[in-house]
Amino acid sequence: MTATTNEGRTATAAASGASATERFRTDKSPYDAVRDVPKERVDMLAREVLDSVYETIRRNKVTYDEYNALKAWLIQVGEDGEWPLFLDVWVEHVVEEVATEHREGNKGTIEGPYYVPNSPDAVDNTIPMRDGESGTPLTWNGTITSTDGTPLQGKIELWHADADGFYSQFAPGLPEWNLRATFHANPQGEFEIHSIQPAPYQIPTDGSCGKLIAAAGWHAWRPAHLHVKVSAPGHELLTAQLYFPGDPHNDDDIASAVKPELVLDPQEQPDGSVAINYSFVLDPEA
Ligand code: MBD
Ligand code: FE
Asked: Which PANTHER family does the protein's record reference (predicted)?
């Protein structure tokens, strides 16, 4: 099953997977980082992961048919370019948990596969969108402060899917920076953002991740979410997502990335728009 954008173009898992893989290679320079991991650490981590695989095979008496099904599926994940999607959906949340457990400020959550750095500054505090972009208009006010209460003149990079669940630069037919922008707080740390409310989101189901989901009888849904990266000089970068109360998938997010501290309290306005107030607290760099 493939999904169709509202321009009628076909969005395939393999195409968005290829974009996510390319994005990752460009932004994260993983091989430089790997060179610096001590041999002892690689040895221990690789052995522990393999030991847990052996344990699963023995306990469940895994057959050759099952082993070959796994092998075929792993080959397919690579061919589909779905390693970024697979890892960010099923593994990243624990890495994020460990990386941020020391923080006293804002809770964060996973980045996911669809961040693009250096989004242009918003014009009139409004995210770029198409004429007649569907979705409830959203006005968001808040502040950025340090853990000691000092206002921070920081910035917020915001990105989210459209009402059909598509991200610009990962699905065809969307303007390059649609629903992606950088917003700046004033010297009092205050910011204002205008966008639209995103819809619940299904990860691509026509590729290898979708095959796993179908074979296991899982679902592919993430609750509606706004992605942010919040930064200020001398402070740790905060990567987070914000969610809407009452979303049926807040309790069973396929990516396990919802935390109660990240659920908004939207107020419906007389004109049909929604107002939200959510502020960020950043931890000073150690
Ligand atoms: C998304 O939009 C997302 O945020 C994550 C974590 C995984 C897949 C798609
Ligand atoms: Fe997302």
From this structure: DIOXYGENASE, PUTATIVE (AFU_ORTHOLOGUE AFUA_2G02910)-RELATED, INTRADIOL RING-CLEAVAGE DIOXYGENASES DOMAIN-CONTAINING PROTEIN-RELATED
Tens-binned pLDDT, residue by residue, of the chain (286 aa): 345 554 455 778 888 888 888 888 888 866 666 677 899 999 999 999 999 999 999 999 999 999 999 999 999 999 999 999 999 999 999 999 999 999 999 999 999 999 999 999 999 999 999 999 999 999 999 999 999 999 999 999 999 999 999 999 999 999 999 999 999 999 999 999 999 999 888 998 999 999 999 999 999 999 999 999 999 999 999 999 999 999 999 999 999 999 999 999 999 999 999 999 999 999 999 9
Ligand 2 centroid–CA 225 distance in Å is 6
Domain ranges of the chain: 9-282
Give the architecture (CATH level 2) of 9-282: Sandwich (2.60)
Cβ atoms < 10 Å from Cβ of 134: 12
Q: Which residues line ligand 1 (CB under 6 A)?
A: 85, 88-89, 110, 112-114, 201, 203, 222, 255, 257
Most informative mutation of 19, 87, 89 for ligand 1 (most atoms within 8 A of CB):
89
Secondary structure (DSSP) of 219-284: --EE--EEEEEEE-TTB--EEEEEE-TT-TTSSS-TT----GGGB---EE-TTS-EEEE--EEEPB
31 token code pair: 């091989």
